[in-house]
Design a protein that fits this description.
Length: about 220
């Protein structure tokens, strides 16, 4: 009887049904992984660890759009020549700015642009987050998004060209932000309406040597 049972078992294992049963009893490590298994999000899709959420989200968007930054520190990410910008600097922490509504100025973006001396005061009166560097021929704006920076620079350009007064720029700025809130966006935040110089050869102002020093040295 024992010999007969062994023979029957062997025959069963050799049959197609027996082979299937043998595969079903295989160790889990030998089975093919499920092709549809969800993958964990990559670190590249996240911002720098330990940064505030808003800065992390903006870092992820900038990286997706322009690639990884050329420079990084624990508190800064820096891109050069990205899109229309000469330089983009994302700060871990920004300065509080209440216009047009309270926010943190964490995104700093720069273009080559010549600002006449008599227009510098108007630009500062319009937005204190505008920084004019006449020596380097640059204008830099700080806000919390690329759209906001683009809007500010376009209105700054209007002021320099005499197309808007400071008060008109302030009013239109608020109008555009309200339009974005209610789903009626304007074109000013979409892209720069002027062509920024590829270099500062035409925008830099080296200044002149002080006449008094020149006289004393000679």
């Amino acid at each position: 009887m024992t010999t007969m049972r062994l023979l029957i078992t062997a025959l069963a294992m050799m049959s197609p049904v027996g082979a299937v049963l043998s595969q079903d009893n295989a160790a889990p490590s030998q089975q093919t992984p499920h092709a549809g298994k969800a993958q964990a999000p990559s670190a590249a899709s996240k911002g720098p660890p330990g940064w505030p959420q808003a800065a992390q989200e903006l870092a992820a968007r900038l990286t997706a759009k322009y690639g990884p930054p050329q420079e990084s520190t624990p508190r800064l990410l820096i891109w050069y020549g990205n899109g229309p910008w000469k330089r983009t600097v994302l700060h871990k922490e920004g300065a509080r700015h209440n216009f047009p509504r309270p926010h943190q100025d964490i995104l700093e973006q720069t273009v080559n642009y010549r600002v006449p001396p008599d227009k510098v005061g108007d630009l500062v009166a319009y937005d204190g987050s505008i920084v004019v560097d006449r020596t380097r021929g640059e204008i830099t704006v700080h806000c919390d998004s690329e759209q906001a920076n683009t809007l500010t620079l376009n209105l700054a350009d209007d002021i320099v060209k005499g197309e808007r007064t400071v008060d008109q720029a302030l009013g239109y700025h608020a109008q555009v932000i309200r339009g974005m809130d209610i789903g009626e966006p304007e074109t000013y935040p979409e892209k720069l309406r002027f062509t920024a110089g590829k270099s500062n050869a035409q925008t830099a102002d080296e200044g002149e040597e002080a006449e008094l020093l020149s006289h004393l040295e000679h």
